[in-house]
Every structure is written in structure tokens, then in C-alpha cells.
Amino acid sequence: MSNEMKNKKDQQLESFRVKDEGKKLTTNQGLKVSEDEFSLNAGDRGPTLMEDFHFREKMTHFDHERIPERIVHARGFAAHGEFEVYESAKEFTKAKFLQDPTVKTPVFVRFSTVGGSKGSAETVRDARGFATKFYTEEGNYDLVGNNIPVFFIQDAIKFPDLVHALKPEPHNEIPQAQSAHDTFWDFIANNQESAHMVMWAMSDRSIPRSFRMMEGFGVHTFRFVNEEGKAHFVKFHWKPVLGIHSLVWDEAQKVAGKDPDFHRRDLWESIENGDFPEYELGVQLISEEDEFAFDFDVLDPTKIWPEEDVPVKIIGKMTLNRNVDNVFAETEQVAFHPGHVVPGIDFTNDPLLQGRLFSYTDTQLIRLGGPNFHELPINRPVCPFHNNQRDGYGRQTINKGQVSYHKNSIAANTPAPASEEEGGYVHYQEKVEGRKVRTRSESFKDHFSQAKLFWNSMSDVEKDHIVEAFSFELGKVQNKSVQQQVIDMFANVTLDLAKPVAEAIGASAPTEGGSNVDKVSPALSQENSVKKPDTRKVGVILDQDFNGNEVKTVLDELKTQGIQPEFVSDKLGVKKGADGIEFEIDHTFLTGESVLFDALYVVGGKSLEQSFKEDAIYFIKEAFSHFKPIGATHGGISWLKEVEIVEKQGVVTGKDMKVFSQNFAGAIAEHRHWNR
Ligand code: HDD
């Protein structure tokens, strides 16, 4: 791509990119190195000499290559992209990047799990981070959200406690990347404001199929301020164009072993294939006058604004279209902060947000080693930046001149503050009054109504999954009292949940309780999400002597619908049809696994090997047990018959290849088929 075609951030990064291929090896001082396999020794059997500057430099750099991982969200993966607004949001905010539909703002998005270490598996049960850096003309704006719209706690002062309880227990550092242990659930039972988020965490939302198929939320209530100074409360939403889809729990656990990099691989490959992930940006707006018009406090981060009451207005779209060049330089060194705002976007008194405004810079100081992390290529704004800050570890810029203070006369009092008209950030002049107290408003104390709203809004299958998730998590808890406390806590939500979980874990089942909220918010159920076949992976199981032409017809048809077939067989290499048509095999039964596909297409063949059939049937049975679409033609149909899974929901067979392909693509779009 020519430099003019690149967006502003990409152009800026270009000046930092280095290509080492084809070059001579040098030290960091630029000295060409003549030998890189033997250190400088006193004699060919003697000791290494201190004088060996090449050895010392290479080793010292290596010894210092690790930086502290993020205390939370350590395991993450990121991509570049662009954001465009559909029409000006001028009525509500003066933020420049939300005004002009012809402007494309470069973005960098990092997705993450929360609890696990940097090397942990990606399909664990957890919230997912969804952090977006917009490189706007007015400075960087960071929307540092999650894929769950509420949070565990209401006040940031509890964050260290929450994270200590979630992380591996300190005495034995077990378990990794899991909430299914005593301290996490002990924290939950003793901090009941977490009830609503726990419902989400135990739902399918916390085992997403893909980063491309999950929503993102700013969680907090922020403020939009327009040119006239009028403010609205605002909540931000990212809506994935492919819809919201999840794995099933058994599958998620198996994928964690078979491919711990499942989500990053999926994102990386989609972008490499040109299947660019897209998310629409939505906003919910509440006028300042309506601050107290709802049965929740708009400042409470454990509450949603039901979409049916406060509609989500879609204002733009983000497209992720470029993978990083270097994960450490970009993904690891990117520094997000909810306090990175631009004029037109401001904060509220949400006590969780207020605490976050401190924590993020603080953490970058230890993680990135000093106050100059804004100079790292990935963190630099694309607009100019000037101030009187100087020095510190790793300073890059060479600020010229005598003056590094304000006010001054020598540099005509520059760099000078900008007026509001010139783009200077002016904080919203909210009136604040009160005594210094360590308390929380009564309006934050209803912890169960929205947890019940969430439950009411789930389909029967989603409810079953929540019961199973609680039963699994609490089943792993050793402490009987903690188990019982959690059961008693969730009896406040609904006995339909508390009772079956109590039975599953041998706790005493509550007989009374339950919130009387009967409201439903259909937007909360994934069953009502967009369903498309695009980018779904189908494992095509085939052996020798199949009807190549017919298989080709099916695959071509599936591909026109955006479906991606990959061949699975007993061996790598080429498999030949009876008509001479050949297919290159992508995976063997050993290297592939049914859990790595969205669907299976069983072609079969004429293998005389019993082991082939056994392996294929293992795949089929597992995919069936995970409610996945299964298609079969030719000999494949007889294998399905053998294991009695024909004429079941989402199992498609056929002799007319065109009709079969259409029906199978329809079944794939449905994602899962629960009624089996
Ligand atoms: Fe946080 C990282 C999202 C509450 C303190 N947080 C971090 C990341 C995301 C979130 C997505 C990873 C950013 C990246 O990819 O680099 N955090 C949230 C959301 C919250 C939230 C949606 C609730 C609404 N966080 C929260 C609180 C505190 C923190 C209450 C502390 C008071 N979060 C941090 C942190 C991290 C972080 C320790 C670790 C690494 C980093 O900041 O850069 O400062």
C-alpha cells in the first residue's frame, strides 16, 4: 500500500517500522558482527571473556525482555481498523470524530480475557475486554469496555479485592483463568452488588464463539456535551454485524486444550482472509432532566438501561482491517485509559469510573516503565502534542529551546492553553455539593431486580446453561458454607435458579425468596441476535472415491454464502474422487477436532479402514452433542444412520446437491440446534 493510501496512524507507524530481512547483523550500536555462534573465549576450550561486548549486549537485552503483564486483561489480542460515523451526532456531542461521515478515524482495538495470565487459554468462562483507541484529530479517545454491560462492583475501591478473589488463590496459585473456586464465590456472596454481573458471567455471554461475535459496552454512564454546552447521559454499545454467538461449555473447555489461541487465531485469520470484523457503534441517551426518571440510578455501573426503554441509536461503524506487525510493540505496549477523552465526551460521578480514572495511568507507569509511554509508537496521538513535560526513562522527543515551564515570557508564553473555541478541553460544569462521606446512596442498593430481568429475558436453553454454569462453578467450590451463601444470595433473584443449583451441588434448597420483577428485555437474549452463515468453518470429512463433482457443487454453493470449508481425513495430502477430482486435506483426525468447526459436512467415501469410520463417527457424535449443524451426502448418510442421528434438528441430508447446500447453509446460519 502506498503511504498516501494509509490512514494517518498507519503512516505514523510506518516511520517506526524496521525490516531486518536481507540485512547484515549488527550490534545496537550499528557495528557489523562477524560471528554470532561462538562467544569470545580464551582459547577454544577456555572461559568467555568480559570483553565480549556482542555477547554481553545480546544476553543483557534478552535478560530484560519481559515486562510485567497487565494485572487484569493480561491475555489479549488486537487489530487496527477504522471508524466512520453514519451521520453527524452534532445534536448531542461536539466530538469532532462523530461529526463528519466522510471522515475515517483510525482505531486500534484490543480484546482480552480478564482473569488469566498472558499465556492462558482464550475460551475460558470470563468477561472479555473490548478496548478501543480512536486516534482522532483532537487527541486519542479510549473507550475501554467489556462484552458485558455491567460490572461486579459499584465502587473502584473494591477492585483490588475483586481481582484478588478472582485470581489464582495465593497459597497455591490454583486455578488459572477460572472463576470456579472458593475465593471468587466467597467474594460474590459477601458483595451482593455483584448479582447482576454474575448472571451475565454465568450465561453464554462469557464463552463467546469469536471476538467478532460479541457485543462491547462502555459500561459506565458518560456525558455527551454539544457545541451549545448541553449535556446528555450516554452509554456506548458495540453491536457485532455477525450477531452475538457463543460456544457451549463442554466445547469451550475442550477448545482451551486443543487450541488455546482459538480467539486470536480466529481474529487473525479473518483479517488475513479479508473478512473484516465489523461493529456498529450505538448510543443510549438520557437527558439531564431525566436523571431521576428511572427505577435505577444512572450512575450505578451494575445497571443496564433496558434497550426497550432507552433505544440504542446506531451512529457509526468500526471495521477491523489490519493485523499488527509486532504483537509486543503494538498489542502489549498499547496503553488504554478511560480518562483519555476529547471535547464533547465527559465523565459522570459513577464511583467505579471515578476510581478507574486514577488506576490506568498508574498501572502503565509500572508496566511500561515510566512516564513516557505516550511516546511509544502505538500510543502516540496523530495530532501534534506540545507541553512542558520533559525527561524520564526512555524519552524519545528532543524538545528544543530554553523554556519548559508555564507561564513564561521567553517563548511568548507558549505552548499556550487553547480556548474552548480553539479546541481546548473544558470540563462540564456540573454542580457538586456534599459532605465528605464514605457511604453510598440508597438508590444503588437494589441488587436483584435487574438480575431477575436478565433471567426473565433468557430463552429456556439459555436458562439451562446458566443453571449448568452455576452448578459447575459452585461444584468446584470446596467450602460448604460459601456454596450455601451463594445459593441463598441467588434465591433473592429466582428460585428457578437457586433450587436446581442447590440440588446439583448438594446444598440445602431455598423454599422462599425470588424477586417479583416480571419485566422482560428481549434484547438481552442471544437467541434474538443476527444469524448469518458468513465466515462459519465447516469440517468436510471425506475419504477416497467420493463423487468429486457433487462435492465441488456443494462447496461452491457454501462458499457463495461466505462459509469456509476445510477438509478433514485420516492423512494429509490429496484425496481423489471416483471421477478424478482431487482435494487437498487441511487437517487429520489427529490435528483437527470437531470442536474447532462450526459444522460438519460428512461426505464419506470408500475407506476399508475401520479406524477411519471410528474417527469420523467420533467427530460426528461430538459435533452433534454440541448442537452443531451436520450435513451428509453420499456414503456419509449411512454413517449418520448407523449412529442414529438422522432426522434430527439441524441434521441435513440430501441427494440433490443444490437443495442440500441451501438447506445446510440455512442450518449453519442458525448456529446451534437445541431441540435434539
Ligand atoms: Fe479495567 C485494564 C475494562 C474496571 C483497572 N480494564 C482493562 C482493560 C479493559 C478494562 C478492557 C484492558 C485494556 C487493554 O486491552 O489494555 N475495567 C474495564 C471495565 C471496567 C473496569 C469495562 C468496569 C466498568 N478496571 C476497572 C476498575 C479498575 C480497573 C474499577 C481499578 C480501579 N483495568 C484496570 C487496570 C488495567 C485494566 C489495572 C490493567 C492493565 C491496564 O489497566 O492497562 O488499570
The rounded Rg comes to 28 Å
Helix and strand content put the structural class at alpha/beta
CATH first level of the largest domain: Mainly Beta
The level of helicity is 25-40%
Task: Please give the CATH architecture of the largest domain.
Answer: Beta Barrel
Cα separation of the termini: 50 Å
CATH superfamily of the largest domain: Catalase core domain
Tally of discrete structural domains:
3
List bound small molecules.
CIS-heme D hydroxychlorin gamma-spirolactone
Function: Decomposes hydrogen peroxide into water and oxygen; serves to protect cells from the toxic effects of hydrogen peroxide.
Organism: Alkalihalophilus lindianensis
Protein name: Catalase
Family: Belongs to the catalase family. HPII subfamily.
Structure write-up:
- By secondary structure, the chain is an alpha/beta fold.
- It has three domains: 76-379, Beta Barrel (Catalase HpII,  Chain A, domain 1), CATH 2.40.180.10; 445-527, Up-down Bundle (Hemocyanin, N-terminal domain), CATH 1.20.1370.20; 531-669, Class I glutamine amidotransferase (GATase) domain (Rossmann fold), CATH 3.40.50.880.
- Helices cover 27% and strands 16% of the residues.
- It contains 17 helices and 18 strands.
- It has helices at residues 8-14, 53-63, 159-166, 182-189, 195-201, 249-258, 262-272, 328-332, 351-367, 449-457, 460-475, 480-491, 495-505, 548-560, 610-625, 635-642, 657-669, and strands at residues 76-85, 105-113, 128-136, 139-146, 216-217, 222-225, 231-240, 278-287, 313-323, 345-346, 537-542, 564-569, 573-576, 582-585, 587-588, 599-604, 630-632, 651-653.
- The strands form three sheets. Strands 1, 2, 3, 4, 5, 6, 7, 8, 9 and 10 form a ten-stranded antiparallel β-sheet that branches.
- Strand 3 and strand 4 (139-146) form a beta hairpin.
- The longest helix is centred in the middle third of the chain and has 17 residues, at 351-367.
- It is globular.
- The two termini are 50 Å apart.
- 41% of the residues are buried.
- It binds CIS-heme D hydroxychlorin gamma-spirolactone.
